[in-house]
């Protein structure tokens, strides 16, 4: 389907009649902004894909143990240290649950005493 000069002229005339000559610059401006936003979003999506591919190359396989990179003056973390940290965190959580339960029972007993 080829558009000749007559068809293009009719399309321009129809657009002018529909929108009016005062609204066309605003419409063109908003169309340009929309295109810029669309292009920047597409570029951002492509950048995210590139970053995801780079991370996929450096992401360890499931089950693989990866030691953190050494920092000057830092002690290396061993799996035993991590297990001890997990046990300590569980103990703190149990203590917090027990304290919450004691507070709940004391508040309930205070309500029944009234």
Secondary structure elements and pairings:
Elements: H1 5-19, H2 24-58, H3 79-113
Shape: elongated
Rounded to an integer in angstroms, the radius of gyration calculated over CA atoms is 33 Å
- The helix tally amounts to 3
Beta-strand content: under 5%
Give the N-terminus to C-terminus distance in angstroms.
Answer: 89 Å
| Overall helicity | over 70%
Q: Determine the mean pLDDT.
A: 80
Low-pLDDT residue spans: none
Number of strands: 0
Order of H and E elements: HHH
Query: Which sheet architecture does the biggest sheet show?
Result: none
The oligomeric state of the chains shown is single chain
| Coarse structural class | mainly alpha
How many domains? The number is: 2
Describe this structure in words.
This is Sec-independent protein translocase protein TatA. The chain crosses the membrane at residues 6-24. One of its GO terms (molecular function) is protein transmembrane transporter activity. Keywords: Cell membrane, Membrane, Protein transport, Translocation, Transmembrane, Transmembrane helix, Transport. InterPro entries: TatA/B/E, TatA/E. With 114 residues, this protein is mainly α. The protein folds into two domains: 1-58; 80-114. It contains three helices and no strands. The longest helix has 35 residues, at 24-58. It is elongated and about 90 Å long. The termini are far apart. The mean pLDDT is 80.
Question: Can I get a quick summary?
Answer:
The chain has 114 residues and is mainly α. Helices cover 75% and strands 0% of the residues.
